Amino acid sequence: MKKISVKLAVAFIILILLSSLLSFLTSAVYMPNLQQEIKESQEAIGILIKDLSEKTDLSNEEISDIISWYTYETSILTHEEEAYINEQEYLILLDGGMIHKPFRRFSGVSTYLMIDDDIMRIQLRQNQNIWKIAASRIWFPGISFVIIGSVLIIFVVRHAVRPIIKLTNATREITLGNFDVEINYNNKDEIGQLTTNFNRMINELKKIDTLRKDFVSNVSHEFKTPIASIQGFAQLLQQDDLSDENRKEYARIISEESSRLSHLTSSMLKLSKLENQEIIQKHKGFYLDEQIRKCILLLEPEWSKKSIDWEINLDRAMITADEELLQQVWINLLINAIKFSSNDGKIIVSLNHLKEGVEISIRDFGKGMSSKTKERIFEKFYQGEEAHDVEGSGLGLSLVKRILDLHGAQINVESSLGEGSEFSVTLNIN
Predict the structure, then answer these.
(1) Span 385-403, mean pLDDT?
(2) How many CB atoms are located within 10 Å of the residue 321 CB?
């Protein structure tokens, strides 16, 4: 396969050759200066012939032989050839003047003068024409131009395609799975823009690769733990001397771990579906405050165990959105608030109108989280140190973030260790 640098160099050299050839043809055909130069040269030869005739005893034939040289030839017209001279031209010759008549094609003109009774003709030799004269004058500059131009073009092309070669090598590395490549090219031209976007693409691919590896690792861990528990307790249930109390306890654990696996699988499927969804498909008008109250009631079994006290301040708000998806948001946020609240704790839920929408705030006074945890809470499967002793899969907040992104909403988190957390969601009304 030919390199692009070779193709470009050959193309440019061919263009130089064609342009040089066309330039030569144009110059030879449309070169009035060369035509005039031929006339002037022949007139100078004619003056020289007259001087030799006047100042020497040489015959016209001898003068013709002497004057004829490499480029021009001088001859005496025969009686038949003199017939081509008309009367007016003949008078000019008798008066000592010179006349010019067209010669062969691309051979310029012939110059005529009269010496004694002979009409002499000065013209280009048979083997000479305008093409040869033009070529003799421009062949060296032309060849030099082609050679120098070709060398410069090869140098320029090699320099121009260098970043493309780097891009090719970098692409090859990416196909091998190596994302630790970067192309340094600081020009602002099209190739510079291409390399800039290419570097951005590499960085994004590197992030995606890191997320993929983390995802596989986390999924493996999340599935491995409950599966190992189910397998272990299932083996214990096979013992003949197992007491009824232990048998029920082991069956309960297996049921809980199975539910955990089912919940984890369901959450992963929902998140996968949402990540491949770009627009909200179900737009419906509903009262947001009523939806949040229903979510709190649905979770009564959870917060009743901890005797959670609620402070609810919800303004009346009608919005248009996907009701089912937003319900998932409030349930996940409320479940987190309940999980991390202590017994007899308190949760504050508020809904306030803003200029262009509404703000929903869910505040708990539980464990809180560190700044490091707060930066990563929306990552898939991430669970901070504060959550290790609390049941969960690390997918709930990832679902929340994706659903809110689809609605064009914003979520903000304020939290400190030992002081609880506050999640604030800003939604457009329409």
Answers:
(1) 66
(2) 24
